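=== RUN LOG ===
request id: a7f3
mode: sequence -> structure
chains: 1
length: 219
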Amino acid sequence: MQLPRALIVAMMCFTSALAYQAKVSDVGHATDEHYNHLHTFKADFTEIYQGPGISRTESGTLWLKKPGRMRWEYRQPREKLFLSDSHNAFFYVPGERQARRTAIKNLDDIRSPLRYLLGKTKLEKELEGLSLAPDLGPLNAGDTVLRGVPKGMKDRISSVVLEITAAHQITRIVIQEVDGTTTEFRFSNMEENVAVQDSLFRFTPPPGVEIIEQNQLTP
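=== RESULT ===
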């Protein structure tokens, strides 16, 4: 007996949907496993910001160390430093007379979606509606591109896009805000589980530099 065409089409769609979700889950789980076994991470980064009438590209080096520590050392086009010691975050521009500090709980910074890499990663829980993003081609052939919305940040971020290699490394993060601005981070020369001194995540102000407290901290 021949099955009705409508039933065949429905079965094909259902099978395709299962395969689609399986790929998302497989990539998400493998990426979780990869980052959950990391203790430290170092990479060169390029940060590309685009907003109404503004386009800015900066670059430098990023260090991450569990639990909850990160250091963004900008070199181009201007030196500046952003770091967190898992309790407080600091922002300082060399040559200025003040450095800013805020408690991590008050941190209102676009880097927030990166913090899941510093804890127990589970992408399908951290990013709601995680799915493939076929409309956003990968920068490198063979990579997978996923899209989701960070939990608890819907009022500010409309989506986060992750480009993930076959080795389950995240090489690009694109953060799209509800106001239309976009911040993209690209990572290269990645080193994992290398020796990273704790002193990198402690901010010691240069002589004559005052630390001021702020409720929010955005470089």
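=== NOTES ===
The longest strand covers residues 40-51.
The helical segments are 5-36, 123-126.
=== END ===
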